[in-house]
Amino acid sequence: MSIHFRKMHGLGNDFIVVDERKTPRDFSPTRIAALADRRRGIGCDQFVTLTPALNANAQAFVRFFNPDGSEAGACGNASRCVASLLATETGQSDLTLQTRAGLLTARVLPAKEEGRATVTVDMGRPRTGWQDVPLAEELDTLRLPLDGEPAALSMGNPHVTFFVDDLAEAERGPALEMHPLFPDRANIGFARIDASDHMRLRVWERGAGFTLACGSGACAAAVNAVRRGLAGRRMTVEVDGGEMLIAWDDNDHVQMTGPAQLAFEGTVDPEAYPK
Ligand SMILES: N[C@H](CCC[C@H](N)C(=O)O)C(=O)O
């Protein structure tokens, strides 16, 4: 039986979004991986499901799955896309999403062009304890004992940020994702600080590989830059797919602003894919 889906993206980080609030489906990791596959399936960086919110203040419970079938607690770019979807549906500009990392509030600004919105998501507080990331042992998350001394934190998902002069160092990403120091694996960011309010970032994403943008990775890199005394608390983060504005506010919350775009809608029969 075919289901409806939306293909959306934030700065080229792309998503299949399935609204299961009326008919929950509980896709298996295998089926998610098949649907997310760019050759055998529809193809996406993350598969995103909406199910009924458990918290009365939220419009939906939102879950994020990588193309390898693993689930992530946070996904910044997809959170902007879902907020934009809910704004179109409800006519509201202020939305609340329930995620495994907690409640996220979002504000959708008036769309300048059809199908594209600018959204600010409050991504909550960065968690900088070694067990938050998590790390395999007690360490100072400001400088990990790895070549390049990266900083680490969680935005609801694990992020490690290397501060580099040459972004070619991003080729280290695949091996570092699987490093034994990261029991849940990790998203590996490589940030070049070009000014106190501007960085260039590439992220090797856990379970997804290089993406054109990583919202939670931009939040993590901006906070880690402040922690290391390399930047101010408002930062333009330039990624392959474009730019986001990140602000680590006075309440210790990270505000992420960027575009959300609906590419197309369609239907798919999940039964046509491996269970
Ligand atoms: N690969 C990430 C999830 C997607 C994050 C990224 N697409 C974003 O916009 O934050 C993880 O496993 O934690």
TrEMBL record:
Per the UniProt entry, the Enzyme Commission number(s) are 5.1.1.7
Is Isomerase one of the keywords UniProt gives this record? Answer: yes
Compartment list: Cytoplasm
Which Pfam families does the entry link to?
Answer: DAP_epimerase
Taken from the UniProt entry, a GO cellular component term is:
cytosol
The main location is cytoplasm
Which EC class, in a word? isomerase
**What would you give as a GO molecular function for this chain, any one?**
diaminopimelate epimerase activity
The Gene Ontology biological process terms listed for this entry are: lysine biosynthetic process via diaminopimelate
Mind telling me which residues the site (Could be important to modulate the pK values of the two catalytic cysteine residues) is annotated on?
159, 205
Which top-level group of life is the source organism from? Bacteria
UniProt keywords (A-Z) are: Amino-acid biosynthesis, Cytoplasm, Isomerase, Lysine biosynthesis
Give the annotated active site: 75, 214
Residues that, per the record, bind substrate: 13, 46, 66, 76-77, 157, 187, 205-206, 215-216
Q: Which InterPro entries match?
A: DAP_epimerase_AS, DAP_epimerase_DapF
The pathway this protein participates in, as annotated, is: Amino-acid biosynthesis; L-lysine biosynthesis via DAP pathway; DL-2,6-diaminopimelate from LL-2,6-diaminopimelate: step 1/1
Catalytic activity annotation: (2S,6S)-2,6-diaminopimelate = meso-2,6-diaminopimelate
Instruction: Provide the function of this protein.
Output: Catalyzes the stereoinversion of LL-2,6-diaminopimelate (L,L-DAP) to meso-diaminopimelate (meso-DAP), a precursor of L-lysine and an essential component of the bacterial peptidoglycan.
Q: Mind telling me which NCBIfam families this protein's record contains?
A: DapF (TIGR00652)
Q: Which family does it belong to?
A: Belongs to the diaminopimelate epimerase family.
Assembly and oligomerization: Homodimer.
What's the protein called, per UniProt?
Diaminopimelate epimerase
- Which species? Acetobacter oeni
